[in-house]
Every structure is written in structure tokens, then in C-alpha cells.
Amino acid sequence: MRVDFWSDIVCPWCYIGEHRFSRALDGFEHRGEVEVVHRSFELDPSIPPGRGTPILEVLAAKYGLSPAEAENAEARVAALAAADGLGFTVDRKMGNTFDAHRLVHLGRERGRQEQVLQRLFRGFFGEGQPIYEVDVLAGLAADAGLDPAEAKQALADGSYSDAVRADESQARALGITGVPFCVLDGKYAVSGARPTEIYTAALQRAWAG
């Protein structure tokens, strides 16, 4: 059975949702027969490459919040992440994630997709690393078991750009407008960062057909 999971690396709900789904999958009795394919989705592809904006500034501008309101909104999400045992820092900058998604596709080709994605999530949310910078991406790729030189080369030569665009095109065809969003066995969809038990029930339903 295959599960297609769309997410963006700078999306906190994806960070939380992916973690909860992984926990559900780890407890699923047919875990060894489930293939998970992580699909690309950019929340804001219009962000210029290589530029980062402090997350509180992004939240305030996007939702019309005061600085205090932005801090409170961030604190609420941080509390949810902490409840799931996830690191979460406000000291991070929003940037373009296209290159990070390309790196995830390299990871998939090398059999390390899950490791690459999770390292990117931890790097961004837990450590505040600028995941739109090539050197940072190469270092995180190395942490996830990839060859950093190969990662740098792939990022330099445009590798996997078509794969990212294909994922995004498929998302549009399915009517996906927000992430996280997963499709189980091509038939059952789960939208949003759901509790672990919801993902468990979805896995069981999809397996039963």
C-alpha cells in the first residue's frame, strides 16, 4: 500500500502532522508493506530564493497581526509541538523551499527520503537553520546520510526541479490547496495535522480496502 504525503518544510502543521503520522505508521501491524512517498508543496513559491524573513514578521504581515499577537500565535503552535516532543524555536526565518524539496527528492532516489525530510524539519523548526542556503542544505543532507558533495551538485545543476513541479501539479489536479495532506492507497484522504489515532484509523481503513 502506498501513502502520498504532501507537505512543506516550513509549515509547522506539516512538521507536527508528519510526526503524528510516523508514530501511527510505526504502530501499524502492516508497516513493512506500506510505502510512504513524500510529495512537494510550496506554501509561498513567490519568496525570492536565498532570502529569509523572521517568522514573526511573516505572521504579522500575512494575518494582519500585531507583534504581540504574532508572538502569541507562535507560542500556541510551539506548545502543540512540545506536547508531541518536537523542538520548536521562534528564532527562524521563512524562505523559499524549492531547493529543500529538491533535496528530499534526491533523498528518495538514494533511499533516504524520510531521513532527509525529518532532518530538514528538525533543522528548521528545532534549530532555526536557514534551509534556503545551499551550504546548510548540504550539511543537513550529510546528517541524513547523503553525500554532501552530491547534494551540492544536485542543487547547483537544477536536478529534481521537474520532480518538485510534478508533485505540485498533481496536488493541483487533486484540488489540494493546503498541507499537510495525505492520500492513502489512492482512495482515502486525510487533510491537516490530525491526532495520531486518526492516522491510525485511516491506515487501517485503507488497508482493509
Account of the protein in words:
The protein has 209 residues and is of the alpha+beta class. Helix 2 packs across helix 3 (67-83) and helix 6 (134-143) runs antiparallel to helix 7. The radius of gyration is 17 Å and the shape is globular. It has helices spanning 12-26, 55-63, 67-83, 98-109, 113-126, 134-143, 148-157, 161-173, 196-208; strands at residues 2-7, 35-40, 53-54, 93-94, 181-184, 188-191. Helices cover 54% and strands 11% of the residues. The termini are close together. It has one domain (2-208): Glutaredoxin (3-Layer(aba) Sandwich).
Question: How helix-rich are the residues, as a percent range?
Answer: 40-55%
CATH class: Alpha Beta
CATH fold-type name? Glutaredoxin
Strand and helix order: EHEEHHEHHHHHEEH
Count of strand segments: 6
What percent of residues are in strands? 5-15%
Name its key features.
alpha+beta, Glutaredoxin, four-stranded mixed β-sheet, 54% helix, 209 residues, globular
List the helices and strands and how they pair.
Blueprint: E1 2-7, H1 12-26, E2 35-40, E3 53-54, H2 55-63, H3 67-83, E4 93-94, H4 98-109, H5 113-126, H6 134-143, H7 148-157, H8 161-173, E5 181-184, E6 188-191, H9 196-208
Parallel strand pairs: 1-2
Antiparallel strand pairs: 1-5, 3-4, 5-6
Short description:
The protein has 209 residues and is an alpha+beta fold. It has helices spanning 12-26, 55-63, 67-83, 98-109, 113-126, 134-143, 148-157, 161-173, 196-208; strands at 2-7, 35-40, 53-54, 93-94, 181-184, 188-191.
